[in-house]
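Input for the complex:
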Amino acid sequence: MSFTICSWCSRNYYPALDFCLPSWYQNSGASRITLHLYDSCEGKDANDTWFLNAVHRCKLMRDAVREAAGTKLLLLDADCIVMKELSAGFSETKPIGVARWPRINMGVLFLNMTLDWPFVEFFDKFVERLMAECDRLKKRGGKWSDPPDQAVLHEMLHEREGDIEKLDAAAWNYCTAIPVAKERIAKHGRDMKILHLRIRSTDMKAFRGLSL
Amino acid sequence: MTFIISTTASAGYRSVLDYCLPSWYKNSGASRIDIHLYDNRRGFGLTWQYLDNIITRCERMRDAVHDANGRKLLLMDCDCLVLRNLAEGFSNSRPISVAHWPEINMGVLFFNMELNWPFDEFIDEFVDKATRRCRMLMQVSPRKVKQHSTDQVIMIELLLARETAVHKLDGKIWNYRYSVRTTKTELDKYKAEMRVLHLRVRTTKPEFFPRLPL
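Predicted:
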């Protein structure tokens, strides 16, 4: 079964990509990998910079969905290690597969676009709502409790709950910090398909000399 | 300026990707990298597999060209190391840029698809002819196939027939062909300007690709 892995990466995340990308072509079974590379946008302050980059990334995501019409697409964060073959993540009946429910994590999203579902409209709406949410937050001083892209997608996926395949988070999006990743793999590695290292752009030195 | 790099890699070439791919996202300036992956099909010996891989590779190249409609596309072999920004490889007046004229090497092909030129027809003709040639060789004389005697000769033939559409790049800079006889002194001589170092890893021996003193 053929599918594409699609990811986004700013220059800051190249150490994550160096570490994770080989596992994608070695283990995933994908027939294609598409990497979108971009330079980080600079805003007026840290929050503004974050908003600009989040919107930019989500626009790239939307464009990728438009281009991949009729195929199977896995949207994957650059800090994810693929441990096993991933084709079973695509449901044959439900258009979107997410690991982690009810609190979703947008780092791993399976889109089965061979199914008839308004993917393009959904992601157009997602970007539109994200931009509105960022504007709203900016007016209120720019502070947020949940990252706005994640919060907006969370809300939209919950509105469509009947169309969502809920995958087991321990297998499909096992989130961990790097310092404890090794012991987590030793304990739960047998079931893991995707290990999400969830690292900040400012912490990339954690990859130096790392072996898992 | 934004452009796409597209490559193909069979299962045997994953270690070559490990070596070369980081140089692409770090140095090329590309806004997107597409890696088309496929498994080697088994059976009928190494030469049959070699030909079968060429057919798959050509088909993936065609998909890449069709997908890139209206953008700048660099088709590059996965055993190429990128040393510098590659945006200048695209000509603004000629649709295709290649190195090593007239003995063109198709490992590095710049397609400026922002220009009005029949790219789809060109790649369709190429894939059609290359596939037919491979299938003929599979049946007739697979033991006599020499490397580069298949898709490469078709590409050369098609480009020579369209010379006015081709921008000729300096081979030493844009597609430096590495060989086991290349010395460090020679590499150093061109290193300051070199943009693409083509390692030319043998299909049958990807595990022997060189660890370069760069």
